[in-house]
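seq:
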Amino acid sequence: MNKICKQNAQHRPFNAFGLTLRGFTLLEVMVALAIFATTALALMKIAMNYTQSIQQNELRTLAHFVAMNQAAELRIEQQWLTGSQSEDITEQGEQWRIQKQSFETMSPDVQRIDIQVSHINPDDAENVQGVTTLSVFNYRQPQLEGDSP
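struct:
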């Protein structure tokens, strides 16, 4: 049995202290690095998608606030919109393009107004990205015959 152990020991590399060296082969290291790199890329992609999703949700929420503010202004000022309107405003720290369009309803004193809010890209003002649309119903007091406008 001693003879077999000596033969096996001769095939193993030794270091300066006479101890056998054990380690990973180059192929094993390369495979491990490839697996690590693939995993790291997948995790980075997940993190980027998560960050973009949060930014999109934040932008959509801000746009909805802007649309609700526009609807509140219509009601407070008792505006009766005819046709469509478009304006650029700064609100919530961002540039927005507001497009309002009115539609008749069955009642002549009620109109539906679609308020579309688009985000204006600060780097490229021509690149306008639609974010949200809010539909509201606007009501006006009917004019009585004795009332003057």
